[in-house]
Amino acid sequence: AVQTETHGFQTEVKQLLNLMAHSLYSNKEVFLRELVSNAADAADKLRFKALSQGDLYENDGDLRVRLILDQDKKTLTISDNGIGMSREEIIDHLGTIAKSGTKAFFGQLSGDQAKDSQLIGQFGVGFYSAFIVADKVTVLSRAAGQPADQGVQWESDGDGSFTVTDINKPSRGTDVILHLRDSEQEFLDDWRLRSIIGKYSDHISVAVEMWKDGEPEQTDEEGKVTAAATEGEWEQVNKATALWTRSKNDISDEEYQEFYKHISHDWQDALDWSHNKVEGNQEYTSLLYVPAKAPFDLYNREQSHGLKLYVQRVFIMDDAEQFMPTYLRFVKGVLDTNDLPLNVSREILQDNKVTAQLRKACSKRVLSLLEKMAKNEPEKYQGFWTEFGNVLKEGPAEDYSNREQIAGLLRFASSNNDSDAQTVSLADYIERMPEGQDKIYYITADSFAAANHSPHLEIFRKKGIEVLLMWERVDEWLMSHLNEFDGKQFVSVTKGELDLGELDDEETKKAQEEAKEALAPLLERVKTALGDEVKEVRLTHRLTSTPSCVVAGEHDMSTQMIKLMRSAGQ
Ligand code: ADP
Ligand code: MG
Known about the structure:
It is found in: Cytoplasm. The protein is of the alpha+beta class.
C-alpha cells in the first residue's frame, strides 16, 4: 500500500527557508552547485561503500549526474545514480539541519537582509537552496542495495511541511525535480545551464551529463518510459577530473575557489590555499585552504573539522580531524594518500604512524602558507589574524615542536601604538629594541584598556621600552608555553622583581640603592600592617606616578591566570 505521511520541518529549516526567499535572490544560481554537489557526494559515498560490498553497484558502476529539462512541465531534474536514501534517511536529511554551528548561526542573525544573506552564504543552505528557484520540489530516491519497491518520494512547496510516500523506483539513486517558479524559467535554457555547470562542476570527480540534440527518453515518476528519445545522446558537460589530481599550472584561481566552495560549503572565496603533490617516501597530495571568515562554531568542541580523506583517489571520509592539529582546525581541504589502506577507518587512523606523519606534513604546509602570506601580503595576513589569531595562539601549547614558527606568526598590540590593533610581530618588536634590551616584555590584563593603562607600564614608557599588550583569554595560556623567541626571553612586567639589566644606568642604580636604605623602615611598617595578606613588601622603581601596586611572585600564577582558573571552576 502506498503510504503518504506529512511531516513538519524542524523549526530551523522553516526559518532558513523563510530567510532564503528574501535574501538569496542575487545569488540564486548557487542552487545548482548545491544540488550537483550533493549528487557528487552521493556518488563518492556509494564508491566507498562498494569497496566492501561490490554488489551495491547493481551492474551499473558508471556513476554520473544528469540534468534533465522538461519544457512542458517546466521542471529541471538533477538525477544521480549514487547511494540514494531510504525513507527514514530522507525524512531525517531533508527535514532537519544536522550541521554543527546551526545554533550559533541562528543566534547571529540580525534581521538586516544584507548582513543576514552574507551569514547564510557562510552557513550554507545545501539542499534547501532548491527553493530559491522552485515553488515545489519533488525528490525520488532509492537506496543502493534495496529492492525497487523500497523507493520513496519526498515533496514540499517549502512552506513548513513535506510529504513522504512509498514508491517503486527501479533505478538506484536520487532525482531532485525542481518545479521552477514562473520568474525562474531561465533555468530551462540549455545553454544557460551548461555555462553554470562549467563554472561549478568541472572539478568534481563525477560526470555531469546533459542530453545533446532533441529530447531524451521521458519517464513517469515510477520510471516507466512514456516517450522514447528522439535523437541525440548524453553528453558529458564537465571535465570531471578531481581538481587536486591536476597539475597546479593548469588550474586557475577561479577553479581553486570553486573547488573550495564545493568541499567547504562556504559561499565566499577562500583567503588562500596550498596545493602539494609529494612522491617518494611518503605519497600524498594535499590541497589545503584557509577560509576568509571564521565559522560560527570555531570554539565549539563538537565542531566538525578536518580534511576530506581520499585513499588512491577514492573518497573515504569527511572531517578526518586526525590530519590537522586543533589549533589549525579552521583549515579546509583534501588529503589524498597512497600510504593508507582503502579499508581504513577512524579507529585505524587514531593510532597510526602514517597518520602522524601526514599530520606533521600538513601542519607544516599550513604554517608555511601563513608565513608566506605574512611576508608578501601583510594586509591579507592581518585579515587572517583578525579571524583566526586566537585559535593560532593555542599552537605553542599543542604543537611544541613548531612553537618557534608559530610564535613568528603571532601579532600583538603594543604600548607604542595606543591602539588595540594586534599588528606587531615578535620580529618587529625585536628589531625595535633599544641597545641593551635583551628581553621581550609583555603584560596580560582583562582588557585592552586595563593593559594599556596599567601602572606597571609607567617605567617602560618613561624609558621608551615597548611592551606587548595582551588581554585575550587565551593569552595567559599562550605565554605559559612560550619561554623565548629568537633567543630572547619573555618577561611579564607584572611578575616579580623587575631587572631591567643593562637598561638601568649607573647613576640610577646608585640612587635606587640609597632609596632602598632610606625607605627600609617604611617597608617594615607596611609589612607589619598588612601581615599575612602579602608575601612581601618591596620598594619598586617601576612606577613613576602611581604610589604602589600589587604584583605576583615570580613563580606564582598571575592574577589573570587565577581569574581564568576561577572562571573554569577551579
Ligand atoms: P550537506 O550536503 O552539507 O550535508 P545538504 O542540505 O546539501 O547538506 O544535504 C543534506 C543531506 O541530505 C546530505 O548530507 C545527504 O545525506 C542527503 N542528500 C542530499 N542530496 C542527496 C542525494 N542526491 N543523494 C543522497 N543523499 C542526499
Ligand atoms: Mg550539500
